């Protein structure tokens, strides 16, 4: 079921850009935005209908546990720690805040106690990456001379690769088991990301470590600037200073159908070499095999967590995923220039390697426990 739902998701990722692109091409961008708005409104009605149907089909969803007031729940959780009179004397807002903190702590404690804790944390670490088809990678691709039409084609190919990852998950699980499927997927994912690491040092890469040193002498900065200008003719000169904004004003940008070009960059300019950007997207596209690892961890969470704690653990897991995703945006804010992207790639690979290492530790413990049980 998980693999089927993920296949549907990947198919929509292929068809949706094609459909919207055709509407915008045949009509206009405004009509395309209206089409997206109408589609979402219709989808909302359909989703509400199916959720209501599931609610009616499964009677257990309508059975609620005995309801307790928030203050009563808080008192029950705190009565062992503080005297009752001391709790009731606290202001209501402070009691609610303490109850919220206690709930978060209890949720994290339940998450930490699970046998699949390391696998879940490993999946969360994979969210701290710039190696995906999001706004960060696409923005970097524009600075490297990739057109919007080619980028949309690459996104479609990436979705097809993700679709193949879901098919591979079902076959690997039947052949090698769930835990071994995660190990195989981890190794394949890391192997694909090696292409991204090679792209950082390949010809055409704009990486310039000197831009991370803000306090350098004027002579050395002029020399390094001359070297960077010769080596990075295909990147946009986003050099920030104390009296100069990091990003140029919106009026200095030409908005075209294919890409974004600055005034001082000719529209026909091309990078000295496309090897770096080719290796980068080759690694990003093939790394969409990651979906098989994601499905593995999702299946482990579903099979190894008791029903009474499943909602709490999944909530903590989602929180960790979003937290690590937020961290990767903070990384980009700290190093926003195209010359910094190679550093972000290396940091992303380190986070992903850490996440897969956590899964390897979980797999080792799971296999050892299985041998001891038998």
Automatic annotation (TrEMBL):
Q: Which family does it belong to?
A: Belongs to the ferroportin (FP) (TC 2.A.100) family. SLC40A subfamily.
**Spans traversing the lipid bilayer:** 37-55, 116-142, 148-170, 182-202, 273-291, 341-362
One Pfam family in the UniProt entry:
FPN1
Q: Which key words are in the record?
A: Ion transport, Membrane, Transmembrane, Transmembrane helix, Transport
Q: Organism classification, top ranks?
A: Eukaryota, Metazoa, Chordata, Craniata, Vertebrata
Decide whether keyword Magnesium is in the record. Answer: no
Say what the protein does.
May be involved in iron transport and iron homeostasis.
Name the PANTHER family for this protein.
SOLUTE CARRIER FAMILY 40 MEMBER
The protein's topology relative to the membrane is: Multi-pass membrane protein
Q: State any GO CC term.
A: membrane
Where in or outside the cell is it found?
A: Membrane
Name this polypeptide is given: Solute carrier family 40 member
Q: What is its main location?
A: membrane
Query: What InterPro entries does the record tag this protein with?
Result: Ferroportin-1, MFS_trans_sf
A GO molecular-function annotation: iron ion transmembrane transporter activity
């Amino acid at each position: 079921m998980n693999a089927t739902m993920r296949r549907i998701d990947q198919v929509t990722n292929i068809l949706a850009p094609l459909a919207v692109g055709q509407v915008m091409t045949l009509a206009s961008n405004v009509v395309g935005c209206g089409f997206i708005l109408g589609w979402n409104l219709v989808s909302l009605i359909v989703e509400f209908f199916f959720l209501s149907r599931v609610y009616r089909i499964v009677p257990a969803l309508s059975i609620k546990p005995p309801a307790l007031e928030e203050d009563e729940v808080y008192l029950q959780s705190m009565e062992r720690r503080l005297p009752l009179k001391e709790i009731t004397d606290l202001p209501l807002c402070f009691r609610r805040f303490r109850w919220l903190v206690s709930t978060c702590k209890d949720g994290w404690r339940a998450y930490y106690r699970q046998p699949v804790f390391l696998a879940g944390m490993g999946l969360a670490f994979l969210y701290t990456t710039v190696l995906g088809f999001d706004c960060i990678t696409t923005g970097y691709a524009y600075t490297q001379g990739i057109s919007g039409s080619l980028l949309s084609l690459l996104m479609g190919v990436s979705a097809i690769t993700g679709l193949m990852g879901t098919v591979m998950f079902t076959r690997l699980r039947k052949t090698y088991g769930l835990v071994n499927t995660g190990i195989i997927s981890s190794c394949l994912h890391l192997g694909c990301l090696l292409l991204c690491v090679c792209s950082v040092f390949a010809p055409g890469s704009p990486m310039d470590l000197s831009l991370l040193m803000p306090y350098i002498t004027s002579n050395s900065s002029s020399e390094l600037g001359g070297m960077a200008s010769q080596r990075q003719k295909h990147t946009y000169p986003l050099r920030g200073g104390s009296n100069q904004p990091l990003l140029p004003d919106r009026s200095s940008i030409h908005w075209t159908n294919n890409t974004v070009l600055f005034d001082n960059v000719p529209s026909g300019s091309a990078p000295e070499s496309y090897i770096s950007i080719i290796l980068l997207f080759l690694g990003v596209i093939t790394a969409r095999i990651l979906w098989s690892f994601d499905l593995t961890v999702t299946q482990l969470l579903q099979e190894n967590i008791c029903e009474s704690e499943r909602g709490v653990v999944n909530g903590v897991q989602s929180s960790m995923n979003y937290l690590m995703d937020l961290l990767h945006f903070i990384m980009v804010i700290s190093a926003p220039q195209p010359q910094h992207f190679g550093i972000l790639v290396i940091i992303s690979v380190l986070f992903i390697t850490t996440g897969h290492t956590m899964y390897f530790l979980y797999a080792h413990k799971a296999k050892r426990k299985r041998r001891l049980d038998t």
